[in-house]
Design goal:
By secondary structure, the chain is α+β, with helices and mostly antiparallel strands. About 25% of the residues lie in helices and about 25% in strands. A hairpin with a 5-residue loop joins strand 3 and strand 4. The longest helix has 11 residues. The relative contact order is 0.14.
């Protein structure tokens, strides 16, 4: 039976980390992901909304209540969790918010027993290492279905 998870919140240095969906501003999240990220360029608002509906969104909010950072977790709440779409808005960078999000979400009471955590990053390994993530010990075990633009790049 699918139900909404409990709301988890934590505070640090004037910032609030929250899984409360009612706080989230999807338009701000979409603007960054579709326009400024390398991994979700061109994502439609409809795609984002569907993704939010089927995952656990995590917002980081400044003292004035505006969005400072974001991530979302794709999880079964029992064994596996995949952290993705993590970003910090420019005005809030350099404060360790992404590392905090990646670490703190593991304290969510419905996630503390999850044993397999993953994420993918092209350029922020040091950020996630601060949160306890390490390179996959056997990358040769993992397989993916390439995105269309990645598959075309491999064609001769």
């Amino acid at each position: 039976m699918r139900r909404d998870p409990i709301i988890f919140e934590a505070y640090r240095n004037g910032y609030l980390l929250s899984t409360d969906r009612t706080r989230l501003d999807p338009a701000t999240v979409h603007r960054f992901l579709a326009g400024d990220s390398y991994w979700a360029l061109g994502m439609t608002l409809e795609q984002l909304q569907r993704a939010l509906d089927h995952s656990l969104p995590i917002g980081i909010y400044a003292e004035d209540g505006t969005l400072a950072g974001f991530g979302r977790l794709v999880t079964d709440y029992a064994i596996f969790a995949y952290l993705r779409d993590v970003f910090t808005l420019p005005a809030h960078r350099g404060r360790g918010l992404a590392s905090w999000l990646a670490d703190e979400i593991r304290n969510h009471p419905e996630l503390v027993d999850v044993t397999s955590w993953m994420l993918a990053t092209r350029d922020a390994h040091a950020v996630y290492e601060k949160a306890g993530y390490r390179r996959a010990p056997h990358p040769e075990y993992y397989m993916t279905v390439p995105k269309p633009d990645e598959a075309e790049a491999r064609e001769p």
